[in-house]
Amino acid sequence: MSLLLAMTGWHVEDWRARFQGLLPEMPIVVLGEAFDRRAVHYVASWKHPPGSLTGLPNLAAIFSLGAGVDFLFADDKLPAAPIARVVDSDLTARMSEYIVLHCLLHLRQQRRYDRQQRAGVWDDDRFQPAAHSVRVGIMGLGELGQDAATKLKVMGFDVAGWSRSPKAIEGLPCFSGDDGMKAFLARTDILVSLLPLTADTRGIINAELLSGLAQGGRLGGPFLINAGRGGLQVEADILAALDAGTLKGATLDVFETEPLPSESRLWTHPGVVVTPHNAAMSEPEAVASLVAAQIRRLEAGEPLQHVVDPARGY
């Protein structure tokens, strides 16, 4: 049996070496080279070419090498094998660092002070609202969202969460579904999006959603932080809300098209912080180790962990 590496945009030979060191007894084959398709029992994928995983009759599991799995479901010829996603404590910690950093950046008005520094301006209006007076709303209450909520609460923020289906999390007010969205948005000064990209969530950050955010809060208007998926946002609507003043600022780590095109107004808009989809990047060695451990579980007759529900898309 063998492990097939199916990826684009990454140095596949580096990944082959990692997996060969972790699974020395297992042949590691690469998409694009000659290999016995009947011998492939496992696939490790990152944005493989659609249709390239057909004809693997003994496939037992597909592993996403990233936190997201939307690229897998974009393949309409994806084999009907169990899919496992990466759940990595390092990735979770890095995402929470990013969310806390940018909530604090907006709370403490750092972009304004950056502009004042460049202009040589000492502003006598140095008032800073307290974190406990600012309401953060997290869309997406999986492992990433729950960890971010915990750490934001340590900083003093007033945190609530929203998810597609109901959740009960101790110490965290939770809203869910279409019925809970209006009340959730109305109590949100900083909206954090950590949702997976599915048919239900594509384009969810649009004009209608942004118009429902709280106005007149302690920050003088709402802010958006999207570190989930670029397909969640409608960038024209975000820019329109920023121009109209119904959205005071935005931190965006993900985009409809990546890399972000040079002509995009998001690069130069004074209310926008752009980062290059690096809010939470796991160490490749950690990801490979997690996948290898899953393969060893299956080989020992133990159940696969972190299995994706195809009906929900995550």
Describe the structure.
This protein is an alpha/beta fold. It has two domains: 2-88 and 282-299, Rossmann fold (3-Layer(aba) Sandwich); 91-274, Rossmann fold (3-Layer(aba) Sandwich), CATH 3.40.50.720. It has nine helices and twelve strands. The strands form two sheets. A seven-stranded parallel beta sheet has the order 8-7-6-9-10-11-12, sandwiched between helices. A five-stranded parallel beta sheet has the order 2-1-3-4-5, with helices on one face. The chain starts with a strand and ends in a 15-residue tail after the last helix.
What would CATH call the homologous superfamily of the largest domain? NAD(P)-binding Rossmann-like Domain
The percent range for helix content is 25-40%
Estimate the global geometry from the Cα principal axes.
Answer: elongated
Contiguous runs where pLDDT drops below 50 for at least 5 residues = none
Give the strand order of the largest sheet, numbering strands 1, 2, ... along the chain: 8-7-6-9-10-11-12
Descriptive keywords:
single chain, 314 residues, alpha/beta, Rossmann fold, 2 domains, 7-stranded parallel beta sheet, 5-stranded parallel beta sheet, 31% helix
SSE layout and pairing:
Blueprint lengths: L1 E6 L4 H11 L5 E3 L9 E7 L14 E4 L5 H4 L9 E2 L4 H19 L2 H10 L15 E5 L3 H12 L3 E6 L10 E3 H10 L3 E4 L13 H5 L11 E4 L8 H10 L4 E4 L19 E3 L9 H16 L15
Parallel strand pairs: 1-2, 1-3, 3-4, 4-5, 6-7, 6-9, 7-8, 9-10, 10-11, 11-12
Helix pairs in contact: 1-9, 3-5
In short:
By secondary structure, the protein is an alpha/beta fold. Helices cover 31% and strands 16% of the residues.
